[in-house]
Amino acid sequence: MDSKKYEEKIKNARSLLELSELEIKYLGRNGEINKLLSSIKGIPNEEKKEYGQKVNKLKTSMYQYIEDRKKELQNKKSDVFFDKTLPGKTYPKGSLHIVSYAIEEITKIFEKISFIRVSYPEVDWEYGAFESLNMPAGHPARDDVETSYIDVPAHSTLGKMVLTPHTSNGQNREMKRVGKPPIRMINISKCYRPNWDATHTPMFHQFEGLCVDKDITIANLKGTLDYFAEKYFGEGTKTRLRPHHFQFTEPSFEVDISCNVCGGTGLISSHRCRVCKSGWLELGGTGMVHPNVLREGGIDPEKYSGWAFGFGIERVIMMKYGLDDIRNYYSGDIRFLEQF
Amino acid sequence: MNIKITHNWLLEYLDTKATPAEIQKYLSLCGPSVESITKSGDDYIYDIEVTSNRIDTASVIGIAREACVILNRFGIKSKLKNVIIPKPTDIKESLPLKITDDEKLCFRVVSVAMDNVVTKNSPKYIKDRLEAIGIRSLNNIIDITNYVMIEYGHPTHVMDYDRIKTGKLIIRRAKKDETSVTLDGKKHNLNEQDVIADDGTGRIVDLLGIMGCENSVVTPDTKRVILFIESNNPHIIRHTSMKLGIRTVAATYDDKQVDSELTGVALNRLVQLFEELAEAKIASKLVDIYHEPKKPKFVSIKESDIERLIGIKIPKNESTEILSNLGFKLISDKNNILTFQVPSYRSHDINIKEDLIEEVARVYGYHNIPSVLQAAVYVKQPKDMDDLFVFQNKIKLFLKHLGLNEVINYSMVSKDQLIDSKLEPKDHLRLSNTLSKDIEYLRSNLMVSLLKNIKDNSGKKEILRLFEISKVYLPKKGDLPNEVYKVGIATNTNYFDIKGIVEALYKELNINQLKVPEIIKGDGTFMTEIDFQALIDSSKLVPKYIPLHPYAVIKLDKTFALSPHTTYAVVRQKAFLSKLLQKLEVVTIFGNKLTLRFYYSSSDHNITEEEAKKELNKVRP
């Protein structure tokens, strides 16, 4: 059990390969150390303890010799030129869909101000998509050039089956689920409209905010929009409301955000900004929840009020990253997908 | 809809020093959005977006009314001009003119015949203004009708009295299979849902509110005309116009319920211009069929509701002043309840107190309302919804880090795609008004789309590993479909590559009990679909902890010859019958020779190699 003998052999190993062969020879399952350990049977009982300690000590020091020599060999300069500029080992890099990133980002922004994300059907009855939102039969949005219908018999009271043309069908469902305000909802989902051209796809995504409580005001809506715009589009982004009309809100607004390309001035070194033309970009529709919509959800509009908005995910991506060829979003082209 | 008017035209009704740029800026903030201004000669053209509820602003007069209120709020003194249009008087020796609407298909019909019409070019200002806003100038007769339409926001119509022959217009529903030829020469099939005018002989001479007919249209030889203006039912107009695909400017007004009080005023203006510009003379009595003249409409509001919805206090005198400037008359003010009479041009749009609040707020200026985030409150998120999003994100990120690319496909697929995937189209929900055969059916399986993705991408990248997490739609009789999330994975690599992805995902989610779903092969594509809920249900955030122990682990290798009876699964199942087996690894596979490494140990004592070998010897397939 002379450690010197082993030490010398290990120190003389000329390569890592040789070293690992020695490691197996000495420390492997059938190595010399194990042999020494298994021969403990033949040692008289009173010497067994001392013998065991010796072997273990030897084993520990051998590990140390091997480790030291390994380091020496690794640090030894090779004759071959070592090019530090070569790329490192390639690890796999996949991608998420650009819409997934936006959904996650938007969910987090609203979570911070106590909004919960919900999930509601993408295939609904006309009641959920229209009636419950103050859009009675005959409303132009219900035309079959605006909404995709499903070829099944209509429900006796809830009407025809439709692919939801907006995320607002979540409003009535959330009001009924919660029963009594407060409501702080963010509903992100696929939506469908029969529209397919350079700037429209028959499927798209919307995110819908709904806030109902006592004394919810236009000032609160402005506060929320300002908060979202700054978080999503960047510090200093401003919003403005313009009068508009939607059936499910009263008053109704269109929201614009200040253009980050020209800083909201509409001009880039005295030329008209190409992105916004006027300093502002249209974000989407919003408003104070129509009393009929609250009533339909079982909420008394004399006691509670609320705001709602529904914006396009593809639209905010386009505004933030300039990814304007929307048809690529859903073409499944790997050259598009793998970029993100 | 968008409407164009010109600055000089506007100034005929509005006295203001506001520049076009100021009008654009302030109107857009508080009223209709002025999308652009274009200079045209010495005039400016405004392109204005009019929302469907404010058809009253789709006119020179309507914009003048809005601009007047808004510009004054911004300190630019403006005043509406008092333009007086005289009401024409009947003449005694009249041409016969008989109009009936027995079924009350229109709200109101006004008409008069005129004689001695001289067809010629319009004066320059009419020509210039119409051309500037994109309406082709033809001659004075046609131009006047368009001019009045844009000025007042009410479609007007002129027909040749002599071509109608009977002096009669009978308004009725079309009969089934009746046809008419509109003035653009196109023939249309009609039915009972369409409303037309008949000359009393059964001949259709007008498609009401949509387009005139070839057999009654004025010609360069026209001497006598019928001026004809109806206040139409917007639902009927919309239906017919969409069905026949005729979207005339008239139809876009008429499908939005134009004020029927305006119908009479528009006729007066029409007569005035015919007299002035076509030398025409009234030749019949005035027809005015007004089934139910509009009654005054009142809307009340509690003063405190204004603040409750807007969020700041607007003094009562300020809010009532805004409303009165907009034409709302304060009728009473008792116990904090204010009652207003709605002007007739707003009577379809203003119904509830929130409508009045909108008027106050927009003119007060949305930019003057502060921005105040509402208080945060706790609302409980249902666990199943929370799980849905947390797991989606977790799985997406994991698969991405493994090197997969996420794809999002349309929820709709083609019939051929279903058949290619050996699915029955009849087991799927079908769109009744699909735009394209490519997106006709709601998919019940993500692999239908992934298969196409792999095919479409062939040649674009050597190795493809794609995944999608989306809903599939499983029809239910008489009810909404089951919308179930699935995780679909597809590769163009090999069986064990995709199997490894699923197993890695299971490991990541600490899933032990779930089987790898069937892997579908075909055409160099390998695909599988995992039920998302099953992943959630069987996953653990942290795996079961196994206490560490100081006892030796014996590693033993053994080689098996694989056969249908001796599969890895069989060996594994038998191996784990041993309580000492901690881990089993594949070392090599060569031909049908499988070498496995067995890790034996016990948590309460050091086992010997013999003990381990004894255990291994029991593993005999």
Oligomer: heterodimer
Residue runs with pLDDT of under 50 for 5 or more positions of chain A: none
Rg calc of chain A = 35 Å
Classify the helix fraction of chain A into a percent range: 25-40%
Strand-pairing-aware structural class of chain A:
alpha+beta
Give the termini separation of chain B: 78 Å
Which sequence of strands runs across the widest sheet of chain A? Answer: 1-4-5-11-10-7-6
Strand content of chain B: 25-35%
Estimated helix fraction of chain B: 25-40%
**Global shape of chain A:** elongated
Mean pLDDT of chain A: 91
Radius of gyration of chain B: 39 Å
Q: How many individual β-strands of chain B?
A: 30
| Total beta strand runs of chain A | 11
Classification by helices and strands of chain B: alpha+beta
Major β-sheet strand ordering of chain B: 6-9-12-13-14
pLDDT averaged over residues of chain B: 94
Task: Please give the count of helices of chain A.
Answer: 11
Q: With helices defined by DSSP (H or I, 4 residues minimum), what is the helix count of chain B?
A: 19
Greatest contact between two chains: A-B, 88 and 90 residues
What does the largest sheet of chain A look like?
A: 7 strands, mixed
Walk me through the structure.
The complex is a heterodimer of chains A (340) and B (621). Chain A is built from eleven helices and eleven strands. The relative contact order of chain A is 0.11. Chain A is elongated, with a radius of gyration of 35 Å. Chain A has helices spanning 3-12, 16-27, 32-38, 45-75, 98-111, 126-129, 169-178, 218-233, 291-296, 313-321, 334-337, and strands at 116-118, 123-125, 161-163, 183-192, 203-213, 239-246, 249-258, 267-268, 271-272, 280-289, 305-312. With 340 residues, chain A is an alpha+beta fold. Chain A starts with a helix and ends with a helix. Helices cover 32% and strands 26% of the residues of chain B. The model of chain B has no long low-confidence stretch (mean pLDDT 94). Chain B is α+β, with helices and mostly antiparallel strands and 621 residues long. In chain B, helix 2 (20-30) packs across helix 3 (60-73), helix 5 (140-153) runs antiparallel to helix 9 and helix 10 packs across helix 12 (353-364). Chain B is elongated and about 130 Å long. Chains A and B meet through helix 5, strand 1, strand 2, strand 4 and strand 5 of A and helix 2, helix 7, helix 10, helix 12 and helix 13 of B.
